[in-house]
Amino acid sequence: MTTRTHPPGPPPPHDPDDERLPCGRMLSRVWADWEDGATDAHTADCPHCREAVADLDRLETTVRALRDDTAGYDAAPLTRRVMDVVRMELRPGRPLPLGDHDEDLWVMEAAAARTLRAAAERVPGVRAGSCRFAPGPAGGARGPVAVRIEVHAPLSTPDLHVLAGEVRRRVLGAADRLLGLDVTDVDIRITDLVEEPDGAPDGRTEGGPR
To answer: Would you state the pLDDT for residue 167?
Structure first.
């Protein structure tokens, strides 16, 4: 990508679901400027803008690899669909309640999802995908939530039930210790079995099930 040093252009039209980064820039503007190859002193030095660009760069690298794997037919519609879905995943989403019922503490879905995906990926060989939240049985604005997370597991996994149990344990632990999020259920969906690169862990969970 060629980088220009002139100031970025005007931001895209406002989207009510757009995210404002902690630095004040809109996420859509940072992404649009990166795709146009435009930058300024702020985006070059701001850690929040750099992190947003890194997220998009990783996403587009993954999508390009997918497109290369689908040689032989027009993958452009699929590429656009994947980009749209994951862009939505990177948006802040709705607030989720933290702490006790009488506390006014909240975390945005996107931030919680990143934390729980990272926890799932602590199981060797696991790669986490979509992470969604739904109201738990109690319901209500400050009620507990249920989590559904999709993962890719190593093809060499000897027991998928054991692996799913370890992923669930890690996700529940992160929700409790790192977020203070009351989770009633974690639905683990193994969406694919993948070959691991040379030198990667063999897919056994650390220490086995607990």
So the answer is: 97
